Amino acid sequence: MTTQDTIAALARGDVRVAEPDGDDWRVNADVQAAILDYFREREMEPSEVGPFEYHDKIPLKSGYAKLGVRVVPPATARFGAFLSRGVVLMPSYVNIGAWVGPNTMVDTWATVGSGAQIGANVHLAGGVGIGGVLEPPGARPVIVEDGAFLGSRCIVVEGVRIGREAVLAPNVTLTASVPIIDVTGDEPVEYRGYVPPRSIVVPGTRPKEFPAGTYNLSCALIIGRRSEATDLKTSLNDALREYEIGG
């Protein structure tokens, strides 16, 4: 398959940068390599869309009516991204290689980075930043699994995986090295780069000793789990009210 064929297959959803593999995910390094090759092969060229003018190497995605995708101006998706039926893009940005599942909302000024995998029925609230990961080929992209809710101004980068139906309160920042600490039991349980399914996560800090003194560094706290007894929307609302966090 040529580089162009691979990018076209990404745009159709026939191949993905990463895909579910049992309880884990498998990264397709050859697809990541093809995207990097595509950048090297392409030349800068202008394009016009209504009153907007662009100058870039990667063409824009098109044909949204046929795809069943709602795109509110000036939302932008690059060719090589895949948007499933029922996706809504408020004024936002989706980069090449990203995969966005059915009925997901990408809210105003949210960004979905290159290669990121966003599941079905996800809500990326206003200003959410999903980082892109393409290199080195084989590196895991950011993964947000089905039914998750990321509150306003959350940042998720460096291949962090958000488990299904997890809830991140506004302003949670997760990198591969930020501690994610479950404080719901008698003893803390620490994760790195992974939020377990149905977790409710809020921003936190914890002290660290330095030669100049003790300072608080950022972490994230798992403070509860979404209820199994309610549907997706009700569970989300109940979680936000019960733990006094907003969306």
Q: Can you walk through the features of this model?
A:
With about 250 residues, the protein is of the alpha/beta class. It has one domain: Hexapeptide repeat proteins (UDP N-Acetylglucosamine Acyltransferase, domain 1, 3 Solenoid), CATH 2.160.10. About 15% of the residues lie in helices and about 35% in strands. The strands form five sheets. The protein has a ten-stranded mixed beta sheet, with no helix packed on it. Helix 1 packs across helix 2.
Give the helices and strands, then pairings.
Blueprint (H helix, E strand, L loop, with lengths): L2 H10 L5 E4 L2 E4 L1 H13 L3 E5 L2 E5 L7 H4 L2 E2 L4 E2 L4 E2 L4 E2 L3 E2 L4 E2 L4 E2 L4 E2 L4 E2 L4 E2 L4 E2 L12 E2 L4 E2 L4 E2 L4 E2 L4 E2 L4 E2 L4 E4 L6 E4 L1 E2 L3 E12 L2 E13 L6 H11 L5
Kindly name the structural category: alpha/beta
Mean pLDDT: 94
Under the CATH scheme, the architecture is 3 Solenoid
Amount of beta strand: 35-45%
Main sheet characteristics: 10 strands, mixed
The poorly predicted ranges are none
Give the oligomer, counting copies of the same chain as homo and different chains as hetero: single chain
| Strand/helix succession | HEEHEEHEEEEEEEEEEEEEEEEEEEEEEH
What is the CATH H-level superfamily?
Hexapeptide repeat proteins
Number of strands: 26
Whole-number tally of structural domains: 1
CATH topology: UDP N-Acetylglucosamine Acyltransferase, domain 1
Terminal Cα span? 43 Å
- In helices, the fraction of residues equals 10-25%
